[in-house]
Structure formats: structure tokens, C-alpha cells
Design goal:
alpha+beta, 6 strands
Length: 92
């Protein structure tokens, strides 16, 4: 009996090779990345929702420059470093 112009044994052999390649080429755990995103707003400590820039210092603190001032974030707490009335925005 012919399967796509091939004898049954060759057809099955090719199917097994293809299945083997699919198993070998599947992503491993080291290739599977999980990205988690957290959204921060003024309600949790960000000085303003309009962020102009971000930078991370050598201690791991993340600094945000916003329209409401500069804010430092350590992963848990927000520490504002406000600008005052005479400086409406901050950029770095």
C-alpha cells in the first residue's frame, strides 16, 4: 500500500524521524522565560504617572524621573525626592 507515493515502512520511518526531531527541538526549561510585569501608579507611591526616564544605580535602586519629581524605588518602598513648585518637571 502506498502512502504519499512511499511504501508504508518508509512513510512510518519518516514520521518517526520527524517526531524525534520535534522532541529534540522543543524549548527546554532554560529557554522558557517568564516575564512578570507590575504596574505602579501614583496610588502606590510614584510621584506622577507620566514617567520621563528610569535609571538603576549601583546599589540596585531604581530612580524614576516624573512630572511630579524624582522618586527612588528599592523594590518595596517609594522615596520621593520632589522638585518643588519652581521646577515643573524632571528629566535625566
Amino acid at each position: 500500500m502506498d502512502f504519499v507515493g512511499l511504501p508504508k515502512s518508509q512513510y512510518l520511518k519518516r514520521i518517526l524521524i520527524l517526531m524525534g526531531l520535534l522532541v529534540l527541538l522543543r524549548p527546554t526549561d532554560s529557554q522558557a522565560f517568564l516575564y512578570l510585569f507590575q504596574h505602579y501608579t501614583e496610588q502606590v507611591g510614584l510621584a506622577n504617572n507620566a514617567v520621563n526616564g528610569m535609571a538603576q544605580d549601583q546599589e540596585g535602586m531604581v530612580w524614576f524621573s516624573t512630572r511630579g519629581g524624582v522618586v527612588r524605588f528599592d523594590g518595596q518602598d517609594w522615596v520621593p525626592h520632589g522638585l518643588g513648585q519652581d521646577r515643573p518637571s524632571s528629566q535625566f
